[in-house]
UniProtKB/TrEMBL annotation:
GO BP of this protein: DNA-templated DNA replication
Protein name, UniProt field: DNA polymerase III subunit gamma/tau
A Pfam family hit: DNA_pol3_gamma3
Reactions the enzyme catalyzes: DNA(n) + a 2'-deoxyribonucleoside 5'-triphosphate = DNA(n+1) + diphosphate
Documented EC number(s): 2.7.7.7
Top-level taxon: Bacteria
Quaternary structure (record): DNA polymerase III contains a core (composed of alpha, epsilon and theta chains) that associates with a tau subunit. This core dimerizes to form the POLIII' complex. PolIII' associates with the gamma complex (composed of gamma, delta, delta', psi and chi chains) and with the beta chain to form the complete DNA polymerase III complex.
UniProt lineage: Bacteria, Candidatus Portnoyibacteriota
Family to which this protein belongs: Belongs to the DnaX/STICHEL family.
């Protein structure tokens, strides 16, 4: 099974199926219910958090023939596309000529945008609105942005633009100010686990809860990455998938392996810490990945030490128990010692990549960390 098969097969057909991003779904579906449609939207946020999924749902919803034309007060929920009318079906089957998707990563140039500008004058072939989804819009050249801006300044009544980007700082302010902007966030761990659980059920595959959690952790808040990892794991065609198998496939360090090292550091047990690193390396784990996980973990510890309320921002993908565990560990370090430890391991993480003995930079950092303070 191809890794993206699962992701595509179960792509949400309704706004209510979108995982996370409740704030965006609520605003959009309420606006649709009131008959309010903007001509330009800008979806920004990390990869795999649902930007193009929501863009396609929006394209379908604005064209759905059961769309209400004015205020509808009785129903509490926002508007959902019906998925039954000809417009919905045409879009669901991917054969609508009025939904145009452009990947700016591969079509960076002015020619494509000029073509778009010329094409936009023509009315939609069948649907009410012609919808242009421009993915990775920050990749456009300066000339292409200028051409796009001209179009956004005077969009024809039948056109809607949905721009998506992972790097908002590369999008010119003049473009941003013409769009209704929506910030997509990393999806919290429990939501990703819930989704993966549901997918596994649909595919009739049994997976240990710890294994699902590890997959979700690796997805790092990205639904697409998490689902594609699940697809990779499922491609073993094993009916009972264990944590060990997932660890082997992903070649990753689960958070407890990183936590263990931090315990040794807190207690200044340099011998045990070095033995731990070597054991990890001998088991075939990638030390570059390990060092990265370590720095990421220390960062979370620092943030939680400053203010436990930062958990929502910096550790949304962790469980409550994991967050509490990190807070308790953090109490063993003085702020100065923790900052120094982070500096030491950032440097070590950079050196692991090009070291002849990848353990060595980590071992040095361990010794230095345990000697001082
Ligand atoms: Zn419909």
């Amino acid at each position: 099974m191809n890794n993206l098969v699962i992701y595509r097969k179960y792509r949400p057909q309704n706004f209510s199926d979108v995982v996370g991003q409740e704030h965006i779904v609520r605003t959009l579906t309420n606006a649709l219910k009131m008959g309010r449609v903007a001509h330009a939207y800008l979806f920004t946020g990390p990869r795999g958090t649902g930007k193009t999924t929501v863009a396609r749902l929006l394209a379908k919803a604005v064209n759905c023939l059961s769309r209400p034309s004015g205020v509808e007060k009785e129903k509490k929920k926002g508007f959902e596309p019906c998925n039954r009318c000809p417009a919905c079906q045409e879009i669901n089957q991917g054969r609508s000529l009025d939904l145009i998707e452009i990947d700016a990563a591969s079509n960076r140039g002015i020619d494509e945008i000029r073509e778009l500008r010329d094409g936009i004058k023509f009315s939609p072939s069948k649907l009410q609105y012609k919808v242009f989804i421009i993915d990775e819009v920050h990749q456009l050249t300066k000339e292409a942005f200028n051409a796009l801006l001209k179009t956004l300044e005077e969009p024809p009544a039948h056109a809607i633009f949905i721009l998506a980007t992972t790097e908002i700082h590369k999008v010119p302010q003049t473009i941003i100010s013409r769009c209704q902007k929506f910030d997509f966030r990393k999806v919290p761990l429990d939501k990703i686990i819930g989704r993966l659980n549901w997918l596994a059920e649909q595919e009739k595959v049994k997976i240990e809860p710890e294994a699902l959690e590890l997959i979700a952790l690796n997805g790092d808040g990205s639904i697409r990455d998490s689902e594609s990892l699940l697809g990779q794991v499922m491609s073993m065609e094993d009916e009972n998938i264990t944590l060990k198998e997932v660890q082997d496939i992903l070649g990753v360090i689960d958070i407890s392996a990183v936590g263990k090292l931090i315990d040794f550091l807190a207690d200044k047990k340099s011998g045990e810490a070095i033995a731990h690193i070597n054991q990890i390396a001998n088991e075939g784990y990638d030390l570059v990945q390990y060092a990265k996980s370590l720095v990421n973990y220390l960062r979370k510890m620092l943030m939680l030490k400053i203010d436990p309320n930062l958990a929502k921002l910096t550790a949304a993908e962790l469980t409550k128990e994991q967050i509490d565990g990190i807070i308790r560990q953090g109490e063993k370090f003085s702020p100065v010692a923790l900052i120094k430890t982070i500096h030491l391991f950032i440097e070590a993480a950079n050196e692991v990549k090009r070291a002849d003995f990848p353990q060595l930079p980590l071992e040095l950092a361990i010794v230095e960390c345990c000697q001082s303070n």
